[in-house]
Amino acid sequence: MNIFYNFAIYVAFFFLHIIALFNSKIRLFINGRKNVFTELKNHISENDRTIWIHAASLGEFEQGLPVIDKLKAEYPENKIVVSFFSPSGFEVKKHTSKADFVTYLPMDTPGNMKKFIKLLDPKLAIFIKYEIWPNLLRELRNNGVPTILISGIFKSNQIYFKWYGGFMRKALNTFSHFFIQDIESKKLLNTINLYNTTISGDTRFDRVSEILVQDNKLDFMDSFKKSSLCFVLGSTWPEDEAILVEYINSTSHEIKYVIAPHNIVAKDIERLKQKITKRTALFSENTEVVSGDPEVLIIDTIGLLTKIYSYADMAYVGGGFTRGGLHNTLEPAVFGIPVITGPEYEGFKEAQELVNLRGIFPVKDTTEFGQIADKLRLDSNFRFKAGNINATYISENKGASIQVMNHIRTLL
């Protein structure tokens, strides 16, 4: 099986080179890996003690930040190295102050991983949520590197739990410890004789809780919202916007809308603006103070959404019209406001639980969206109750990073 796996990795990388000629994201994926080993040699010396954290993409990095921050504070003599598999994580965080060095993870070939681990020489390896690479994990085990998974979550349909998944089960056996989100994951791991587990929950609860204590003031939001009710529509995709714009255009009540699209492409932003019949402004036109008293503000930049949510009375989180695409519902929920999403929320544990608790409301079309949006707007008691459900849920689920750090202290 190992031979077939390695062959598949080489074949995939070959075809990715071809796809990169026509796809800019894949081009970043390929080109970003060309100088990984040279950069490692330049940034990591033989005398360095390194702690290595691997994240698939930006979401997993954010998920791991509570642990990364604690590592930097408690082990300042160690270099914190963060690796990404996806360009969407690396390109955004390649200059982050949270790490001493940020790199791409090479493709999982035996030669690449042998060289990568030799140059990096980590004293501890931390994987966030998933990313199971057999050659990499085998190399870590061969070098005696303690390796832990944090905020892991497992499902019965994953290959590890199938009769043909022996090769990947063997890779899981290389982990020193699993910090997992729920009892279901623990039971599944037990079925394949993995008992080195702790149900710690999700470190994202710790991460979003930190948002509450940061400075969330934004002058442009103060001038835009004033005393109006504010509805923030975050991380939206065209499928979301088709419903949202129809609702915005059809309502006459006084309410301020903020739309923060997931993809910031100038022509798409302008197309969105033209579809809205209410007074609409772009953030790029009013970066300090929003002038002209617009009813709709489109955020055509990144990095502001978490602070903007602090001004919301209710929120919509995009991506829920594509299976597996729902964005982070905890970011607005932590501010104690109700959240609306699209219908595809299955597989997102926190969204499923908050839907059941009635803090998140999934909708499948404009009619359903209008019904719940109007109820939240008109019934303040209903709005506050739903928001309080969300805030309480997050508060009760904090603490995963503390359990992880207690274990790490036994390893370093």
Overview in brief:
The chain is α/β, with parallel strands linked by helices and 412 residues long. It contains 19 helices and 14 strands.
Structural summary, described in words:
This protein is α/β, with parallel strands linked by helices and 412 residues long. It folds into two domains: 196 residues, 3-Deoxy-D-manno-octulosonic-acid transferase, N-terminal domain (Rossmann fold); 181 residues, Glycogen Phosphorylase B (Rossmann fold, 3-Layer(aba) Sandwich). It contains 19 helices and 14 strands. The strands form two sheets. The protein has a seven-stranded parallel beta sheet with strand order 3-2-1-4-5-6-7, sandwiched between helices. Helix 4 crosses helix 10. The longest helix has 18 residues.
Overall 3D shape: globular
Low-confidence stretches: none
Strand line-up across the major sheet: 3-2-1-4-5-6-7
Count of discrete structural domains: 2
**Average pLDDT, to the nearest integer?**
94
Helix content: 40-55%
Task: Write the CATH architecture name of the largest domain.
Answer: 3-Layer(aba) Sandwich
Largest sheet: 7 strands, parallel
Rg calculated over all Cα atoms? 23 Å
Derived from helix and strand composition plus strand pairing, the structural class reads alpha/beta
Question: What percentage of amino acids are in beta strands?
Answer: 15-25%
The CATH class name of the largest domain reads Alpha Beta
- Span of the ends, CA to CA: 35 Å
Total strands: 14
**Helical element count?**
19
Query: Which topology of the largest domain does CATH recognise?
Result: Rossmann fold
